[in-house]
Amino acid sequence: MALEAAEVCVVGGSEISRLLRERPEVATRMLSAMSERLEAAEQQLSTVTGASVGARLASQLLELADEAGATTFRLPSTKKDLASYLATTPETLSRRLAELQDSGVVRLGPRGLVEVRDLQRLRAAARA
Question: Long-range CB contacts (< 8 A, 24+ apart) of 69-75?
Answer without folding.
Answer: 71/115, 71/116, 71/117, 71/119, 72/113, 72/114, 72/115, 72/116, 73/113, 73/114, 74/111, 74/112, 74/113, 74/114, 75/112, 75/114
